[in-house]
Amino acid sequence: MAEAHAQRLDALRINRSVHPRRKLARRWPLWAGLGVLLLLAVAAGTMGRAPSVRVAEVREARPGEQQTELTAAGYVSSRRHSVIAAQVAGRLVEVAVDEGDAVKKGQVLARLDDRDARVVAARAQAELLAAQQQLIAARATATRARSDLGRAELLAKADVITRANLEEAQALAHASTAEEQAASAQFVAAQRAAEAAALQLSHTVVRAPFSGTVVRKLADEGAVLAPAALEQENIGGIVELVDLGALEVEAEVSEEQLPRIELGQPALVFLDAYPDQAFRATVRSVRPAIDRSKATADVNVAFEEIPPGVLPDMGSRVAFLKEELPQDALEKKDAALRVPAAAVVQNGGQSVVWVVQDGRVKRQPVQVARKVGDEVALAQGPEPGTQVVVAPEGNLRPGRKVKVRTEEG
């Protein structure tokens, strides 16, 4: 009985003679299997993730591309464009125009509360009238004193009056003349004060400095306006006025391309709002300053005829031409399509592009006609508007799902 009990106790004892490393060695296949499974899961996730690709659209050639020296992006602007503000502080009591209204030079745009200005002007006029009366009285006194002096000098020569009487007459004449001069100076000062008060009163009426169109209304009746400030733009603005008859395109040209631009050089303007139309223009001026941050200069291009419907800040592209474009060349397009040069790659000795359709890519052969700047002209390829991958990576496969981002990001 005791022997059986001892055997059971021996069975419960832990055998410490077995080394722990041998146990770990027996378990390494389990850890290795788990590692392989983890690697397979990561690889599967990576394989299934849609890569991000940059795309651009196939486009038709624009008129005059054969004669184009260079192109630049820009915006429509006006040579006469101003935010109209009052020259004095005050409360706005009337805005006489609305957005879209055409106004003439000198037309009333707005009125400020003029009660204080009228009081000041009335007081200045009263002071002017008082100064005028004082001048009249001083002139009369001075005239009489000079006449008395003349008689005193004659009487003194005849020894009718004493020397003291003559000196008294002379002193009175000199004093009267000084009073006349002082009254005259006070009258001139009162005149200038009245003119200043009248000018301040006139500033409560805001008029158009040039003929144009109201494109924005910046304040309404009841607003308290600060006077126009030189340090800060648009402080106290009431309306924004633009001369739509002086529209042009302000394009940004890189400084290394500036030598290719000349005053009077012919150009074509393509507006984003009217992509199928080309408008003739000429280089009007080149701003003599470089933007350090962008290394560009502004080139102003004037329309030969301002097209209807064009508005300030419309996006555009300007094609600077090598020579004047004939009218028939302006009306017809180069049949070739255009894609970024980086979109065309070689595959098995054939030029192809990767077309994105329904979120997946497919390979399409193209026939390259020639290289044009950073683009290539295609004699045969996808239809205009088709999205193609720019600078495709080698991991693309037909039918693979992709995430699209445009040229703008």
UniProtKB/TrEMBL annotation:
Residues 84-225 form the Multidrug resistance protein MdtA-like barrel-sandwich hybrid domain. It comes from the Bacteria. SUPFAM superfamilies: HlyD-like secretion proteins. Signal peptide: none annotated. It holds the Pfam family Beta-barrel_RND_2. Residues 249-314 form the CusB-like beta-barrel domain. Residues 336-404 form the YknX-like C-terminal permuted SH3-like domain. Transmembrane segments: none annotated. Belongs to the membrane fusion protein (MFP) (TC 8.A.1) family. This is Efflux RND transporter periplasmic adaptor subunit. It comes from Archangium minus.
